[in-house]
TrEMBL record, chains A, B, C, D:
Domain Gfo/Idh/MocA-like oxidoreductase N-terminal: 28-145
Residue ranges of the TM segments: none
Pfam families given in the database record: GFO_IDH_MocA, GFO_IDH_MocA_C3
Name by which UniProt lists this protein: Gfo/Idh/MocA family protein
Region (Disordered): 1-24
Residue ranges of every copy of the GFO/IDH/MocA-like oxidoreductase domain listed in the record: 153-258
SUPFAM superfamilies the UniProt entry points to: Glyceraldehyde-3-phosphate dehydrogenase-like, C-terminal domain, NAD(P)-binding Rossmann-fold domains
InterPro entries xrefs: Gfo/Idh/MocA-like_OxRdtase_N, Gfo/Idh/MocA_Oxidoreductases, GFO_IDH_MocA-like_dom, NAD(P)-bd_dom_sf
UniProt feature, compositional bias: Low complexity: 1-19
Coiled-coil region(s): none
Amino acid sequence: MNPTTGHAAAAVPPGSARPAAPPAPTGLAVVGAGYWGPNLVRNAQATPALRLEWLCDLDEERARAVLGGYTTVRVTGSFEAVLNDPAVGAVAVATPAATHFDLVRAALEAGKHVLVEKPLTPSSGEAAKLVALAERSGLVLMCDHTYCYTPAVRKIRELVRGGEIGEVQFVDSVRINLGLVQPDVDVLWDLAPHDLSILDFVLPPDARPVAVSAHGSDPIDAGRSCVAYLSIWLSTGALAHAHVNWLSPTKIRTTVIGGSRRTIVWDDLNPSQRVSVHDRGVDLAYAGSLGREERREALISYRVGDVLVPALPEQEALRGVMAEFAAAIAAGRPALTDGRAGLRVVRLLEAATRSAAAGGARETVDIGENE
Amino acid sequence: MNPTTGHAAAAVPPGSARPAAPPAPTGLAVVGAGYWGPNLVRNAQATPALRLEWLCDLDEERARAVLGGYTTVRVTGSFEAVLNDPAVGAVAVATPAATHFDLVRAALEAGKHVLVEKPLTPSSGEAAKLVALAERSGLVLMCDHTYCYTPAVRKIRELVRGGEIGEVQFVDSVRINLGLVQPDVDVLWDLAPHDLSILDFVLPPDARPVAVSAHGSDPIDAGRSCVAYLSIWLSTGALAHAHVNWLSPTKIRTTVIGGSRRTIVWDDLNPSQRVSVHDRGVDLAYAGSLGREERREALISYRVGDVLVPALPEQEALRGVMAEFAAAIAAGRPALTDGRAGLRVVRLLEAATRSAAAGGARETVDIGENE
Amino acid sequence: MNPTTGHAAAAVPPGSARPAAPPAPTGLAVVGAGYWGPNLVRNAQATPALRLEWLCDLDEERARAVLGGYTTVRVTGSFEAVLNDPAVGAVAVATPAATHFDLVRAALEAGKHVLVEKPLTPSSGEAAKLVALAERSGLVLMCDHTYCYTPAVRKIRELVRGGEIGEVQFVDSVRINLGLVQPDVDVLWDLAPHDLSILDFVLPPDARPVAVSAHGSDPIDAGRSCVAYLSIWLSTGALAHAHVNWLSPTKIRTTVIGGSRRTIVWDDLNPSQRVSVHDRGVDLAYAGSLGREERREALISYRVGDVLVPALPEQEALRGVMAEFAAAIAAGRPALTDGRAGLRVVRLLEAATRSAAAGGARETVDIGENE
Amino acid sequence: MNPTTGHAAAAVPPGSARPAAPPAPTGLAVVGAGYWGPNLVRNAQATPALRLEWLCDLDEERARAVLGGYTTVRVTGSFEAVLNDPAVGAVAVATPAATHFDLVRAALEAGKHVLVEKPLTPSSGEAAKLVALAERSGLVLMCDHTYCYTPAVRKIRELVRGGEIGEVQFVDSVRINLGLVQPDVDVLWDLAPHDLSILDFVLPPDARPVAVSAHGSDPIDAGRSCVAYLSIWLSTGALAHAHVNWLSPTKIRTTVIGGSRRTIVWDDLNPSQRVSVHDRGVDLAYAGSLGREERREALISYRVGDVLVPALPEQEALRGVMAEFAAAIAAGRPALTDGRAGLRVVRLLEAATRSAAAGGARETVDIGENE
């Protein structure tokens, strides 16, 4: 961690004998008062380890409207002013993706920790530069992969990585709704980062995406795909798939993770039963001592077992994002969803774009190490 | 219609002056007492225009068990005996797909009308021969595309073809469940015929499938795909997609047909609301007088409208299949889901198999004329 | 068991040395070819321990239509002929309730075992006479409390009586639908027998109904209640409640059984999750060593725990009814839902009718011993 | 309207010629920083026609925590200080019910408009005094019957009062959940005010509650009913019913309003389909020209028709409450859910309490005029 950045952790002198006093909160500026910014503002204010100093937007009027008429938080249209404020130790960037590279680089060069919306950048080359810059500077670069901080996804990660479901056999994710056609990105870049970042978060490190195939469709002639299907082959041979769609009148957000022992169903729109663990599956009868060819002839039988619905706390994901950002800063450690995770997601999105342009051809991808 | 086949319609002499007397029912033999045969037996018995004469299965014991202990229907293990019985005017074939070609050909050559389970045959070349043979012989060759005879799919056809939803923009179909891993076919050939035959049935004639791309996965090492994704490009440019899966612990049977004016959601597992018509969609604001490039810049806005759930009768689909089979025989006309429809489905399945073998490459397909 | 009745068990001579031969099936006549009769006919035919001999209805045409054109079962309009047939050892009565007493009495007097639709009779005095007659004659008198033979209710009985949920604290049952307004009975007598017989079946013997209060309403001026609410006080102090309704456009069949440790939710219309066991409840914190008054002041806290959905077989309830009827006959023992259970239900219905007539006044009821 | 109260409307001089300038917002103090207070604080801040001046709570620390660390709103523990502040024109009371009478009376006597949580007071005598006091003083006394300001209930009111569903035949409401056992009120007083205020709001003025019957149960020995059933007879003869329950592990909030032409189903937990209008019902066939007795014999038939799901905006109800409070103040008119509505609800709750104490006896109630 760079001792010159003035972030909160550094403010506590080494060897300090006052363990009871909490560290001073890290001063934060939120940049971007559009769709997502207000959520960052609200959750930052509710996080004791952060101190919201600024809301920055070129449109100061919009920023003022987001804050409302009862606030002590300051508004500015100048990103430079934010970076020059020594009270600011960290910046949360919620601007259009095309602006991420310049803003994040400037913030890192100014010694600020950075939380950035997905996707990290529209290009993996730029994303890699930001990752390297942050690591060189000893600064936290965190991607706001929000879903990874929901109680549901945390639980799923625990179940998958803990071996509860056995080997992952398939993953199927559907994220469809009547959505806003984005002016700058297609539906893959808009919605699939959720699915890809969740996959990155919950799969074991040895199940890495190695190739993708994507098909997109623009039936309303919007100039970019509004419906897309993405197949992702994992290094284990399993197939993951995501369906993202801006045009569906019914809203579905469901992910099924099939394992050799159990299957997880995550229905994010069912508050009373978001995650269920199904003790059902397919067995190859008498398959224990059989060779491969023999197994294929063996009779397949079915276990139908109990379903367990684990109790989950109700908790806003973004609160967890803010807490993790502050904790990573305080501990001088990478965030759970760090820049490298963001870079892996961008590499997959780029490969998907290449595949879609080539009519769905399988595109090999080297995302680097998982974690 | 071949006057020598002895089917019911031909039994009424031309010019007959007895309009009140219903025609004698067509004598029927069901061949195959396995998974689906019992349903054919039950529904044939409930169809006044048919007279069930035989249940034929190599395993006569199984056939007797299917009929139960209170029946007057005869059992035989000899398909030849069935074909030689002049009381039999029609045959319903519910045996494994690999046997369809020989059985159907023999039946047609014996002058019997044929109802056959999906897929028509495992090869389009054989399927085409059967279609030609039936047409030459003036016999009804009908495919049991069961879903097309549900009140839901009939309603959807009416809505789509009647112009209610505007132009079809996308189709997404999910048919997943914990299923029996078939010994002879993969999940595409087992389940996708449902989706493909429904598409064939409901889409307007000018929206023909022109290419497919498929990915399959066999995560349980069963020797054939158990999870598959199938993309289908239509001649209109729209994209249809089907997800079929034998390994899902949750059962889903949902098809969404997005149109330029309305969107249909068919949830076959929701008896109180199988079909809903959503008056929602995406508009390009001010797009009326704009050129193509301009439209892409135009602001996209959203209509959120009412949803209508049309009342549908509860009616077993197979009852409708039997009624249509008998009616086609009586009228000497092709069945709604005739051999040509079955051939189109087989051509798509073959193309999907080629695509999956080629890693998902786009395969052009010429299915011939729709209808 | 009356050795003169000619039923199946008696047909095996005592001391017979042929244990491998199954007993000859009991000859059965179904009486009544109306709404429910066809279901009895179908399930009797599928029960090896029964041999369906007759379908008896005053309207022989209707009976013939129920059997269809492929049957070996005989039709008769004469109940006397049925009773005089020595091949008939048992009778299943599915006629209007008002005819039950005469038909069941005649059958018992003729030495036939009897299965009878709910309610046993419209009057508890008559019901008691039938119970006494059957017991005197050593004949099985069984009530077709169909739901008790569903896998769901069997499981619930096991959970409740096995102590899994702790003490029963409340029961709430909703059984509403767009229903046929019955010509002869109100909605309480039509639908509440289901709820009351299920309660009778699943509650432990020491939790007996001791009083009821009922309100009915006839908003369509049909001449009898079409909407009714029934409160039932148990001997343990707990309150059970049933809402029955013929006028609801949405169909609901849900019963919640709240226990001191767990709560059971039975949603009969959710095939993938009919029964769920909720490890949630209300605790009185620190209440262990407190007296009654102190407990009321103690802080109440909440456990939110996991939910378990036990796997249940799919099995038609009426198949289980038939099997139980045959087994009780064979073993010469009372059926699980015997005449006494039917009598208890009728006593509760009578009390409910009195209460509704008295504006909902609490009516004490002595149903006799549970079991 | 009392010209001395200094509220916003009075601040605009009569005959003012500046119609474009919006009136100055009314200064508001929220009293009570417990469970509901934070929601009032948040929504008041988002309402342009209000100006939040104070959050008042005896526990100033709690009040400060509610406001958070970035606010300009002041905290006080002194209700007197609030009443003495001339900048305060209105007070929103969210304290325990037992304190409502004293707080509301003092506020009205100080010339402040009042918004008060349900129930208005625990006694109808006190409630009537507050109503009279407010009317004498020309001040707005509004009850926070929150649900009445949801888009769903507004739509239902429009449908019911507009004649869309015909005559109201029955109402059934279920409001159950795992809830906090309240220290001061039973489940009827805690939850049934929602159902009663909604009934009051949506039913036509000529369908007035005239009698109630209630049963409560305290199975966890909490010292007050945790499960309760409430029957309400309307002046039209129709029966309404509410089930309220703190002990249910499944959360249900559903109200069915059956009409002679259509039936409304409101499922508040189904965001994609909160309100559906069912064109189904029960007809008396050939009943047109028949007398009463004849109608009872007439054949009853069933219409199964379409279901319409009207599009509803997503909008926080409390935002609507605040807007209505401000609008009533500005216009010098009673609020939609005024003190009289609150008084009617309290009269019904008192009658329900009397009935439950008398074992469910029917209690006649005179709630005064609806509206």
